[in-house]
Specification:
Helices cover 42% and strands 25% of the residues. The chain has 452 residues and is of the alpha/beta class. It has three domains: 182 residues, P-loop containing nucleotide triphosphate hydrolases (Rossmann fold, 3-Layer(aba) Sandwich), CATH 3.40.50.300; 113 residues, OB fold (Dihydrolipoamide Acetyltransferase, E2P) (Beta Barrel); 77 residues, Helicase, Ruva Protein, domain 3 (Orthogonal Bundle), CATH 1.10.8. The longest helix is centred in the C-terminal third of the chain and has 17 residues. The relative contact order is 0.13. Bound molecules: adenosine-5'-triphosphate and magnesium ion.
Amino acid sequence: MTIKEIDEIKEFERIAAHSHITGLGLEGIKAKRIGDGFVGQVEAREAAGIVVRLIKEGRFAGRAVLIAGPPGTGKTSIAIGIAKELGKDVPFVHLAASEIYSSEVKKTEFLTQALRKAIGVRIREVRKIYEGVIKSIDIQKQPHPYNPYYQVPVSATIELATKKEKKKLSMDQTFAVQLVQQNIEEGDVIQIDVEGERLAKLGPSTEKVKKEKFELTGQKPVPIPDGKVLKEKEFVYVVTLHQLDLARAKSGVDFLSLFLGAQRKEIDEDIRREVDEFVRQLIKDGKGELVPGVIFIDECSLLDIETYAFLNRALEQELAPIIIFATNRGIAKIRGTDQTSPHAMPIDLLDRILIITTKPYNQEEIKEIIKIRAKTEKVEIEDEAIELLTKIGLETSLRHAIQLLAPASIIAKESDLEKIKKEHIEKANKLFVDVKRSSKYLKEYEKQFLDY
Ligand SMILES: Nc1ncnc2c1ncn2[C@@H]1O[C@H](COP(=O)(O)OP(=O)(O)OP(=O)(O)O)[C@@H](O)[C@H]1O
Ligand SMILES: [Mg+2]
């Protein structure tokens, strides 16, 4: 559980800097000058839009994208824009190459898990559901076998009604326990999924709330359902192959490993094969469809030759996500070899890649982006301050300029001002240096040592 939470926080921090990006800002295949939080970078966005079309039409299998451009020119933003355009339930996995090497598991295992997080299966299921308001409830209890002072539910009988009909249902312990756990009583509207062995309280009925004259209730009142008590309902949801792997692995956990709290870091290849087989069957039976997602690998020039070979093979597999790489390196050595190549990527991979480049922004664009960012961060800023930030952005980097917004707003608040003024930006820029200045500082400092 904790592992998942950390993942979510990391994901949140990464996306937070791009929260103003809601798509690629396109109209057809043309980019609007400003749209979906995007400013400029028109050609890159249009290229990305075409990639989105190819993916949606299923014509992108076995291919990959590389976004190449100087730091802070919107490479990550474009990848996020692509994901947003693909749709809400399309999986998107964001990795920095360095993570692959800092992980506790083997790098192939880490990558396999990441790839499988980026492939979804949309499952359609028609399930039989009992739905209605409880007219009467009777729970049979027995003393606990090892603790006779403690009563446990063993079975239950309820009367469930809709506006049309009433049905008496007797249920075993699986459901009786859930009735007790959820504190379900007369007048509550519930839903029972027999196959899934789940029972859920939807809320108190509006009639019950009216009758008992509650002014406030913790749960939103629900109207009494219409139609029959037993009905068929379609459920549609997307699960990733990785989630299916985990579920499958858990059902196979033996008592001892549960007892010792052993955590499974690696997933058996057998389990993955079973899951793949299960998914294939689902698709064949028309009960599911594949939703290939996107895996975004940032700073990819840090990947070594083995990792590239692995990803290259992954691309050819039947179940493969779309891989988007990003780099700001030009010609460099491929890690793990003596060979130099464009973007430090192996040639055979470069061959099957579509390359999108991002270009540095001009003054007007930087100004526009800073304004959008200020609005999303809900800070008010004077025109003079925007001018200065724009200048800083031109001289250092867009990212540095954007990052100064938050500290400047704190400095402004400290002087009881609602709006950020020029001097607040100056102060923030003095306190927080950009990379060029910080590395120059350290270089000079090192020189002092050498002079000794
Ligand atoms: N065209 C744009 N329109 C709006 N916002 C942008 C645009 N380009 C970049 N940004 C914003 O500027 C910041 C830096 O951009 P981003 O992180 O996407 O650049 P990058 O090329 O990935 O940088 P790096 O090389 O450092 O990873 C982010 O907050 C991003 O959302
Ligand atoms: Mg980036």
